């Protein structure tokens, strides 16, 4: 089972079916907060929707297509973080994340991403990690910048959410660009 200790308070764990109620409750409490950025929020209406999500991401992990985890802080689910859209031909994956509003601003995502990126490069042997976010999501783009990702550009009107088309900024980091990469 995948579990990754970040520090004494934070841990990443694969989603488990018996956590569906807790994950749904976090999503439901943060519906307005998350709904600004994520189209899946409006389709997550009950625990069964969250359970379906968990079963899907566990299949993705078993099929070697993704590593999607719950972020645990002080023994509670605080959000999610993972690598999806893994393309083994080019060694690329996309990081996505969210936290409940009560957990933001504490460096949880930045520290967790740093650990997951190391796992992606060192264990999965990926070469490129991508983060995409809407330009208005300044907290998310700040995470990418803090982690040393390079801004690649903006995919204009490439996502649809709340009935509107949205631009998506693309940030990436290559294995050789890591500060601890062998020279």
TrEMBL record:
Pfam families: Acetyltransf_3. GO terms for cellular component: cytoplasm. It comes from the Bacteria. InterPro entries: Acyl_CoA_acyltransferase, GNAT_dom, Ribosomal_N-acetyltransferase. GO terms for molecular function: protein N-terminal-serine acetyltransferase activity; protein-N-terminal-alanine acetyltransferase activity. Keywords: Transferase. PANTHER family: RIBOSOMAL N-ACETYLTRANSFERASE YDAF-RELATED (PTHR43441:SF12), RIBOSOMAL-PROTEIN-SERINE ACETYLTRANSFERASE (PTHR43441). This is RimJ/RimL family protein N-acetyltransferase.
């Amino acid at each position: 089972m995948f579990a990754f200790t970040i520090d004494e308070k934070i841990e990443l764990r694969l989603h488990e079916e018996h956590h569906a109620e807790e994950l749904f409750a976090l999503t439901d409490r943060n519906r307005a907060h998350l709904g600004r950025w994520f189209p899946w929020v409006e389709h997550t209406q009950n625990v069964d929707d969250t359970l379906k999500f968990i079963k899907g991401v566990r299949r993705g992990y078993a099929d070697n297509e993704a590593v999607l985890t719950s972020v645990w802080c002080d023994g509670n689910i605080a959000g999610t973080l993972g690598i999806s859209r893994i393309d083994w031909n080019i060694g690329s994956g996309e990081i996505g994340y969210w936290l409940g509003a009560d957990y933001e601003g504490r460096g949880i995502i930045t520290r967790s991403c740093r650990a997951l990126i190391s796992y992606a490069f060192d264990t999965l042997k990926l070469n490129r990690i991508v983060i995409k976010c809407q330009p208005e999501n300044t907290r998310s783009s700040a995470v990418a910048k803090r982690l040393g990702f390079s801004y690649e550009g903006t995919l204009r009107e490439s996502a649809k959410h709340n009935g509107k088309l949205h631009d998506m900024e693309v940030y990436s980091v290559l294995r050789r660009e890591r500060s601890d990469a062998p020279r």
